[in-house]
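Much of what follows relies on a compact textual record of a protein's fold. Here is one such record, which you should read through line by line:
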Amino acid sequence: MTRPRFTTAFIAGLASSSLLLAGCTGTEDTADSVNSGGMISHITYAGIGGGNAPQANYNPFLDASKLVASNFVYEPLYVIEQNSCKEVPWLAKSYHWQNPKTLVFDIRDGVQWNDGKPFTAKDVAFTFNMIKKYDVLDTKGSWPLLDSVRATGAKQVTFTFKEPGASGFPVITAVPIVPEHIWSTVQDPTKFTDAKDPVGTGPMKVKSFNPQQVVTERNPRYWQADKVKVKEVRFKQNNGSPEIEQLKMGRGEYDTNGMFIPDVQKSYVDKDPKHHHYWYAPGMVMSVYMNLTEAPFDDVAFRRALTSAFDRDTVARKAQLGYVKTASQTSLVLPGQQDWLPKGIKNGGRVPFDPKAADAALTKAGYQRDSQGRRLGKDGKPISFAFKVPTEYTDWVAAAEILVKNLKALGLQVELDRTTSEVHDQDRAMGRYDMMFGAHGGDCNMSTGFGHPLGSAGTAPIGKRAFSNEVRWKDRKTDALLDDLRTASTEKAQKKAVAGLSEIMMNDVPMIPIWYGAKWFQYDTTRAVGWPNAKNPYAAGGDNLIILTHLRPAQG
C-alpha cells in the first residue's frame, strides 16, 4: 500500500519537524543504561532535513534547505496544538484584540536567548519586519495579511491587520522569532545559514553536525528548562528504502517516527510490545469530489442521495487497514474539533451506509431504473461516469473499488479509471473528471479549512487550473459565511460561521467525506515515556515543542 501524497503533505505541513520517512543508526540502549539523575540521556528522531545533500543550515525561514533541528532552537509566539487546536501560550504569555484589526501580544517574562541576552518585544517586531523586507522569508504568508508590526513596550507587540484579522492568528503565531542582536548584522538573511552556534530561545542548542547526524543538547537557559528532561535530541539521516527503515524501526533504532508502515502491528509493535506503540490521529479529510458543473452531479438531490450510498466502514477497515476513522459529512475532523460541531447534527455528521435509503432517494429525485435495473438520468439515458484514481496510491485504488461497487449496486454505470498521480492531480485541478478523491482541511485554521475547498475565489472554469476549489462549488451563502469566518474576532462568531458551513456540507453536499487521512506517529518507550496517544491526546505527533516538555525517563 503506497502512502498517499496528500497525507504526506499534511503531516509535513503540521510541523516541519514532524519527521516523515526515515530511519537512523544507533544502539539499543536500555532505559537503565541511558537514564540517570531523573534525565533522559537522548532521544533520536529519524531524518535530519536539508534535502538530498544536507549542510549546516539552521535558518528557520529557508524551509527547503533548513535542518529540522532548527525547530528545536527557534520558537513562535504561540503553539497551536494540532490535535484539539488549543492555543498554547509560548513566547507570548497572552494576547488581546484591541479591535478587529489590532492584535496585542504580551511577551513572556524571563525568557533569554541561549547566549544569555534577554528576549524582548523588539525581537518580535524585528523578525516580522525583516521577513517583510525580504519577502522570500515570509514562508507562512504573514504580510499579505498585515499592515504593520510594532514593539509598543518592552513586553508588548502590536500587530495591525489590513482587514479584520482573527483568521490570521494561526499564520502569524507560526512564525519563528529570531534575535535582533544577531540577525540585524546579517547582510543578506535570505542566504544566511546560521551555521555556527545558532542563537534561539528554544529548548535545545546545536552541538554537532555532519551529513549523517545532527546532535542538539539541552539549553540550560531555556525559559521552561525544568520541564525538559532530555539531555540530547539526535537526528539521524535516513539512507535506506522504506523496507529497510521499517526494519530499523522494529529494532528500536530511534524513539519516534512518522512514516506509513504496512501492518504496523506485526512490523513494529510485535517486535517489542512493551515499548513499541503507535497512534494514528485523524488528519486531512479524504472526500469524493464530483464535477459539479455536469449532470447528474449538479443536482443537489442526487448528491445528497449518494451520502448514504458509500460503505465508509469497509473503506476504513479494508482499504485503509483499519488505521483510520470514517469522516463527518461536516468536514470537521473529529473528535479533535468536536467543540466546533454544531448542536443538532446527529452522530457527529457521520452518514451511515444505507443503500436502500440511497436507492429510494435517487428514485424520489427522479432518477428511475429501467427494466434492466440501470439508473436513468433526467434525459432518460443510463447514467454513466468514471471514477478516476491514481494507480500509485494502492489504498486509494482499493477504496475506489469499494465505492464503485456501492454505486453500481444503485444501477449507476461506473468505470474505474486508473491513471498516474501526475495526470490525476492535473485533471482534478483542471476539472477534467467526473468523480475522484480529493483531500482538504485537517488543520486548525478553520478559515482555510473551509475556504480552500469551498470558496469561489479558489475555483476556475473547466479547463483552467483551480487554486483550491477543485469541485467548482460556487454559492453566495457559502462565500458570505467564509467572509464572516475570516473576519470574526471572537470564537463565538467563528463557531457561528462554522455551523453555517457545516450545514451547507450536510445539506448541499459540495463533496462527500469518506475517511480521515492518518497522522502517522510511532513512538518507543524504552528511554522516554509521556508521548501523546489516544488515551492522552495532549498534542499531535508533530507538536514536538509541546511533547519535549512532557517526556520523562522510563523506569527500568
Observations:
- The longest strand covers residues 281-290.
- The chain has three domains: 5-72+202-280+521-553, 78-183, 282-518.
- The chain has 16 helices and 21 strands.
